[in-house]
Amino acid sequence: MAEASMGSSAKMSDEVQPRSYWRWSKQDFYPEESFQTWDSYRSALSQISFRFKDRLLSRSDDANEIGELRKRSENDMKRCLNWWDLTWFGFGSVIGAGIFVLTGQEAHDHAGPAIVLSYVASGLSAMLSVFCYTEFAIEIPVAGGSFAYLRVELGDFAAFITAANILLESILGGAAVARSWTSYFTSLLDRPTNSLRIHTNLTNGYNLLDPIAVGVLTIASTLAMISTKKTSYFNWIASAINTIVILFVIIAGMISLYLLVIILFRGSHPNAGCGCTSYHRAEIMPCGFAHANTSNMTPFLPFGAKGVFQAAAIVYFAYGGFDNIATMAEETRNPSRDIPIGLLGSMSIITVIYCLMALALSMMQKYTSIDPNAAYSVAFENVGMKWAKYLVALGALKGMTTVLLVGALGQARYTTHIARAHMIPPWFALVHPKTGTPINATLFITVCSACIAFFSSLDVLASLLSISTLFIFMMMAVALLVRRYYVRGNTPRTYLWKLVIFLLIIIASSMGTSAYWGLNPNGWVGYTITLPCWFLGTLGISVFLPKQRTPKVWGVPLVPWLPSLSIATNLFLMGSLGYEAFIRFGIYSQNEVFHLLRMPAVKFHKKVRKISTRSNSSKI
């Protein structure tokens, strides 16, 4: 008896003993029955048609994403973030080198002084996507972000395509920013661009090895793995330094703007009493501090409306990164309060900052004289502030550092939730019991990004990243409309078919508008067809379909109009990209669909087990 009791107690202690985080068994990577033997794998492959139908039609739900899937990480992420952390994460994730590079490039090539309107247009488009992300993050506060939201509303197939694009963005995006970090670092040291890279005899585009990029990625990911809260502290400091640089740029330009306004409305030199008597071609030199030239803002639209929207499609990507904040909902103490403040608050401020920076550059220098490669540095040098180029380089460097840091957090959380759904090995879903962070997922993204950053310049893949981002944002808007107007088990089938028809009209008309713009930018006849169709499709949802769900705390206003407008703007911006981007995107998506078909289905085996269990119970 005693031996039996001792044996049972020993068995119980073995059962309650937690498993080690660092484990490498086959069961941790491939727990599904399909992978246990070659026969079972071949059997699963023979069910391709059934599995494809299953993945195409199956959908998750809120409770499953919030409850069941999170348990697969074995340990919870620490709830340590508040609205202040999320707001600064928003600054750190979005404000990188893009604003310093893209503004001058697009002002010079496409928009002229109207670059500020390009930032307004792209900022409004980004805010529409932010609205969608905010509502979903409050309703489904998990680490999966857009992957989890699309899995609930559009199903496993859409979620898998999204997951593939998210992983692509995470790996290539991190590598691209790390390579840019090296370039700006050499600029800060006043050295040639590739002087810190190792020159080899490899194929062109892969012949400049970048160990500094690997080091920066490693440092950022290490900090992200140690602690989310400590990462937030570091992000505050780095973002604050970057903000100081940005304020310097804005203030320098706004002083010039203030002086210009005085000249335009008072018709006199504002420094008449300070010894600055030179006044030639309305040129001002306010005691040597800044330049304001009345001719800098004219012509305001040198390339017309076409140039404004072309530039908007490019500078839109200076707003990228905000979706990383939605992945932190699982670590937020009060998601219903903190996420709207953090996401909407940071993006609203960032939009204003971007517009002011664009205006400051246009005020300091004529658009034809702007250097597309170093706009702000050259502009300050031309007004006698050569030292400011180092300050700009430092600001861009700090911006890219925070982008890498917040990216390491967000990308790992995307990967974690994708692994929870067994779309990649579930080993990557594990959360470390002490740090409360997904170390395995962070290592996966970092190692892949570091390998690519070390070898590749990534010039060829830049457009593929852009189209992937816009595709996901468009899908998010579709998912929000589905969430509001369709609830499984409650919505009549006739309403479902109406919703599908109206959504197809909205998407098709938006694609038509984008295509017509690309083929005939100066035309107008095509818009008389596509725009009314978009309007009627949106109006149809508003009039003929009752809302099936009301947000619990906060929701996107003016539904269905704002989500429908988000679909249109994202498709419009996609259409502004070259056809090469669509070819690469199509090839990549086709490969992912093939991978999906040959990948053994977890749901299939679960259904088989449920059927067999049900039949056995019926026999009993």
Automatic annotation (TrEMBL):
Gene Ontology CC entries for this record: plasma membrane
Residue ranges constituting the Cationic amino acid transporter C-terminal domain according to the UniProt record: 554-588
InterPro entries (UniProt xref): AA/rel_permease1, CAT_C
GO molecular function: L-glutamate transmembrane transporter activity; L-lysine transmembrane transporter activity
Membrane topology, record value: Multi-pass membrane protein
The UniProt record lists the keyword Transmembrane: yes
Residue stretches spanning the membrane: 80-102, 114-136, 157-178, 208-228, 240-265, 303-322, 343-364, 390-414, 435-455, 461-483, 495-518, 524-546, 558-579
Family note: Belongs to the amino acid-polyamine-organocation (APC) superfamily. Cationic amino acid transporter (CAT) (TC 2.A.3.3) family.
Protein name: Cationic amino acid transporter C-terminal domain-containing protein
